[in-house]
C-alpha cells in the first residue's frame, strides 16, 4: 500500500487589484442610489409639492455627510488596517460592550442588506414589467433562495461576472444623468409620468416641518449604506494595502456622490412625484391597481423614453447591481465572523480558513432570516429601509465615536512625548517649533505600524481627522435618533429586540470560551500516566474495511489485541465465525450478545468491565471510516459508527482510531479544486492549488519547507 | 486516571398493552370520522338535496369496505407479523418494484396525514371560534411547527397524555350520537343550522349521477385512512403479539364504524347541508364572510346547543385527536424507514435503534413538506383529502393484491403437499376427506412460523381470506381509479409526480449499497500488510487535552513518535517551545511553517513526504476531541479538528486516533436518560435504562453476559 507519487500542491494567494476590488466593495453603496433619492423625495412630498423646494438642501446635507463618512473611513483604514472595521475601533476605544453592540448592529445590517437590496431589485423589475406586481413577495423570496444557493455552491467574487453589472450600472446611470442634463440645457427637459399628478398634502405645523425635513434627511442617508465595507476588507488588497484601499474608497465615494446628486437633480428637473401611499397622487386613477414605478424607472423612462432599450438596460443594471449588493452580505459576514472568532465572540471555527459546513449554515441562516423579514413586511421597501438605517447608523456612530477617542488618545500621547522630549532636551535650550514638529513626526512614524503607510501623522493632521470624525459622529447620531423616534412603532422595535439577543449570545460565547480555557490550563494537580495498551477491532461482517482496520491494529503492535463482534443476527454471526477461520486470522474473535438490537451497549459494558480488571490501561478501538466523493454519500455511510464512537469516547481510557476506507468515488476528492468559500476574496485568503512536480517538501532544521 | 465504579446500566424493553396501543394506533383512523361524513355528504349535495337520499347507501358501502379492509389486515397481520405491513406484502408477493411503489405511496401518505389532520383540526377550531377564520393557514403552519418541535424534543407515545384525547373523543362523540338518536326517537330531533338553506344544484345527467355517487363513495372512504398502521406496529405489542394486534385492530375498526355510521345518520337526521362552495347554500347571506362550520360542529351544536359546554368539548376533543393523528406520521415514518433500511432502500442508519440526528432530519423534512403543501393549497380540506386518498389507496390496493397472491401461493403449496401426501400413501388406499383435511391442517401448522399463532390455517380458511382480500383489492382499486380521474387536474398530479421521485431515490439507494457491497467484498487480489508504526501528536497550545493525547500516544508504545505543531503565530509558537521545555517532555517537537494560515496543508505535505521516505508504514495521528454535555457546545468545539481529520484520512497509511477530553459539562451525559425517539414505541424498541449495582457483566465462554 505504498502511496502514489501525487504531484505536490502549492498554495498561491490571490489578492485584489483596485479594479477588481471596486465592484466587490462598491456594489452595496452604489446600489443604494437606487432607493435613496426615492425615499428622500417621498418623505418630503408628505408635506406637499411645496416641500420639494427643500430637496436640494436635504440632498446637499446627505452629500456632506457622505463626504464626511468617506473621509472618516479613510482615517479608520489607516489606523486599523487589519480589517476589523467599526467593530475593532469600538472594541479598542470604547470597550468590549460597545464593540459587541457594533457587532450585533452589523449582523442585523447584513440581513437587512439582503432584504432591502432584494426588495428594491424586485421593485425595479416590477417597474419594468408591471404585470408581475402581484408576485412581489414571491419574487423576492425566490431571489433570496437563488442567492443562497449560489453561495452554498461557492463562487469567487473576484470573477468578472461580478464586475460587469457594477460597471454597467455606473456607466448607464451616468449616461442617463448626462443625457437628462444636456436635454434640460437645450430646453427639452425630460418629464416624468408622475409629474402631472398633484400630491395630497397634510397640513404641517412648524415643528412637524422640521421633523419632516429630518426624516427626509434620514431616509436620504440610506445612500450611505455599504461605505464601511472596505474597512473590513483591507487585508484583501494588493500592497500597499492601506493606500489602495483608501483610493478605492475615495473613488467609490465620489462615484456614489455623483450618481446620487445627479439622480436627485434629474428627478427634481423631471418632476418625479413619488408618494408613500400611491393614492395620495391626485389624478392617478390606477393608483390601487397598478404598481407605482420606482424613481429610477421614471427618470429612465423620462430621459430615454418609456419602453426604449435604454430604459430596460437601466432597469436590468439596477436590478443586477442590487442583487450583487445582496450577495455582499453573504460574503461580508464570514469576515465579521472571523474577526469576532479571533476575539472569542464567535465559534473558533470561523477564525481560520473556512469550514464549509459552518459557512453553509451561516448562508442558510442568513437566507432564512431575510425570507422571514421579507414575508412579514411584504417586501415593502419604505418600511424595510427604516429598519436598515438603524443598524447601519448604530455602527457608524459608535465607529466614529471610537475614532474620536482614538485621536484624542493619540494626541495625548503625542503631547506627552513632546513633553518628555522637551524635558530631555531642556539643557540644549528650547527648540524651534518646526523642530519640535519634526520630532513629533518622527515619533509618529516610529509608532506607525503599517509598513506601507509612508506618511507620518502630524499633529495638525490628527486634529483634522479628529474634527472630521467628530462631525461625522454627531451627524450620524442625529440620524439615528430621528429614525428611532419616528419609526419605533412601525417596526424599528424589531431591530432593538434582535440586537440585544445577538449581543448576549456573543458575550455568552466569550465567557464560555474563557471558562474552558481556564479548565484546560495545565496545572500541577492533574497527573498523566497511563500504562497498558490494549487494542480492540470492531468487526461487523467480513469485509475489506474491517480487514484493513485489523491490519493497522496489528501493525501498531499493541501489548494485546482482540476483535469484537456484537451479535445482532445469529446467522450473520455464524457466517462471520466461519469466515474468520477461513481467512486464517490469528486475532481472537470475541462475540458479545445483544438482547435489544443495541450495538453500543454490550460493547461499552465489556470495556468498562475490562477496565475494572486491568486498571488504567489505554484501550484503542479501531473502527473503519468510509471516505466518499459525493456529498450525498455521507448520508448513507458512517452514521452508526459515529454514534458508536460518541458513546465509546465517554468511557475512561478509550481512544478511537479511525481507519479510512476509500470508496471508489473518493477519487473525486483527489482531483477536486477547493471550491470558493464565501468572503474569501475579501479576507485576502483566496488561494489556488497549483500542481507542481513531485519532490515538494524538504525538511530543514526541524521545519518543513517547499522545495524549489 | 482509573475509572469511577459507575453503576452498571441495564436495558429493559417496554412493550405495549392493548389499552395503551389503542390510542397510539387508533387516533389516525378514528380522527378521520371528523371529515369523512362531511366530504361524503358534500359531494352528494353537488347534485342537489334529492341526492341526500343516496347517502345511507353510500355510507353503507363505505362501512362494508371498512369491514373488508379490517378483515384483510387481520389476515395480513397473521401472515406477516414482523411489522412490514403493506410494503412487505407487496415486496414479497408482487416484486421489488411493487414494494417500492407502496413505499413511495406510504411516504406521501405520511406527509398527507399531517397535512389533512392539521387542516381538519384547524377547521374545527375555526368552527368553534369563527373570528380566527382569516388565520386558517397561519394556524395550520403553527400547529405543524409545534408538532415537529415536540417530536424533535422526543416524547413517548405511550404516555397517558396521548391516551386521554383519544378516549375523550370516542366518549364524547358516542355520547353525542346516542343523545341525538334518543332525542329523535322522542320527537325532538336536533336541527342543524344549515338545514334551513336550500342547495344550488347542478343538473346531473345519468352518467354524471353514477360518477357523483362514486366520487361521494371515494370521499367517504377517507374514513379508512390509518387502518393499516397496526400492521406496521405488531412487534410493539406484548405477547401473544399477533393476537393482541388483531384484537386491537378489530376494536379500532368497530369503533370507527360505529362512530362513522352514527355521525352520518345524525347528520342526515339533523339536515346538515355542507357545500363545497359555501355560497351554493341558498339563503345564507354571510357565505362570503363567515367560515362554513364543519359537520362535526354543526351536529354538536344541533344536539347540545350552540355555545354549550358540550359543544366546545367536542370541538376540543376533535381538534386534539386530529393533532394526535398528525403526530402519528412523525412516529410512523421511522418504522417505515427501518423496514426500508433493512432491505437497503434507505440509509442503513435507520435500521438499528435510532440516530437522533437522522430522525431529527426526518422530522424536519416531514414538517417542511407539510408546511409547503398547506401553504400552497391554503389549508383547503376538500382538495387535500383527494391527494390523501390517492396515496392511501395505492398502498391498500397493492397490499391486498399482494395478499391475494400470497393466498394463491399458499393454496398451491397446500394442494402440492396434499398431492405428495396422497401419492406416498397411495398404497394404503385413499383416505377419507376428513383425514386429508386433518393432514393438511397439520402441514399448515408445521409451516406456520409464528409461535403464538395457535390456530392453523385450513383450506377453507385460506379460501375465505382470499375472497376477502380479493373483494377488498377490487373495491379499493375502483376508489383509486375514480379519485385519480376526477381529481387529476385539481392537484392529484402532484402525488403522481412525488411518488416516482421517491421510487427512483429508493431504487438508487439500493443499487448504490449493492455496488458498495461488491466493492468491499474480500477478494484475493487485495493484500494487506503494513509494516512500520509511527505516531504523530498534533499540538496547538500547551493545554491538558494535548497532554492527554501525548500520554496515550506514549502509552501505545509505537516504534517512533513525534509531536507536530503548525505555526500560525510566531508568538504562540515561541511560547509553546518554551512550555515544551518547561514541562520536560521527551518527545521531539517539530514545527511546520504555514504561509497562508492553513492548518492542514503543511501537515499533509509533511506526512506525504515522510511516506515517500519510509514506505508503507502506518502513521497514527493523535488528536484531542472535546466531549461536551450541552448540544450548543458542539457548535463551539471540534470543527477545526474535524476538517483536519477529513483531510488527513485521505493520505495513504494514516489512521486518526481521537483522544477524548471530557469538559466539565459532560457530566450531564452520564446521568442523562436517553430521550425518547420518534416511533420507538411502535417498533417495540422503547428501552429504559435501569441502574444496577456494580459488577454488571461477566464474561463466560467468550460471551459477555449480565451478572445477576
Automatic annotation (TrEMBL), chains A, B:
Sorted alphabetically, the Gene Ontology cellular component annotations on this record are: membrane
Give the highest taxon in the source lineage: Bacteria
Span-the-membrane segments of this chain are 40-73, 98-119, 125-150, 162-186, 206-227, 248-269, 309-336, 357-379, 385-408, 465-485, 491-509, 648-663
Report how it sits in the membrane: Multi-pass membrane protein
Query: Which GO molecular function terms does the record list?
Result: transmembrane transporter activity
A Pfam family it matches? AA_permease_2
Biased amino acid composition, Basic and acidic residues: 698-708
Please indicate if the UniProt record lists Transmembrane helix as a keyword. yes
> Quick one: where's region Disordered?
419-439, 675-708
**Compartments (UniProt record):** Membrane
Q: What keywords are assigned to this protein?
A: Membrane, Transmembrane, Transmembrane helix
Which Gene3D superfamilies would you find in this protein's record?
Answer: Amino acid/polyamine transporter I (1.20.1740.10)
Family annotation (PANTHER family): POTASSIUM TRANSPORTER KIMA
Protein name as annotated: Amino acid permease
Organism of origin is Agromyces seonyuensis
